[in-house]
Amino acid sequence: MASEAVLDRDLLRAAWDSYRILETRTPPGERLEAQRRVQSAMDAYGRQEVARATVFLVGVLTAHLTPDGAPEPDGLDPLSDLIPGVLRRLSRIETADAAQAPMVAGVLTAAVLGQDPVSWRDRSGTIPPAEALAHTYVLWLLADLLDTLTETPGATDQIMQETFASSAPDAG
């Protein structure tokens, strides 16, 4: 199981705020507030824990896109469609380091196969900044895909609110 620190609401919100910073539909004032919250979480918990929280949220969204890990009858096959599609789109982002693709693919594969992506990722040690950024881009790509597939802009925001509510029940 993933470290309890990853389940801290502040960390999860900071990871989601990283997505909000990238999302072009985020109003400038909200983007600045998101940047402030991310920096605050990094100051309080460290960059590594925010990166691990991002990996956790990648797992959450992957689980929503592939609920049982099997191909949908007329839709997305997690191993032949989702992972390669995300990697293709990630490779088109100029500021994403292509060298991070194998770790991103591993995190996505672990999530698709029902493994804890944070525990899987932790086996490889500390998450370097370039990889952390790649996971943030993946979170952004998965959120966009989920909103598109559900034809409900903001559907992912609702999933995140449910994730925050169910995490660390004893926290504020």
Brief summary:
This protein is an all-alpha fold and 172 residues long. 68% of the residues lie in helices and 0% in strands.
What does this structure look like?
The mean pLDDT is about 90. The chain has about 170 residues and is an all-alpha fold. The chain has helices spanning about 10-20, 30-45, 45-65, 80-90, 100-110, 115-120, 130-150, 155-165. The chain is about 70% helix and about 0% strand. About 35% of the residues are buried.
Give the integer mean of the pLDDT values.
Answer: 88
Specify Rg, calculated over alpha carbons. 15 Å
Query: How would you sum up the global shape?
Result: globular
Count of extended strands: 0
Q: Please write the string of helix (H) and strand (E) elements.
A: HHHHHHHH
Structure classification? mainly alpha
What can be said about the biggest beta sheet?
none
Uncertain segments are none
* SS summary, helix count: 8
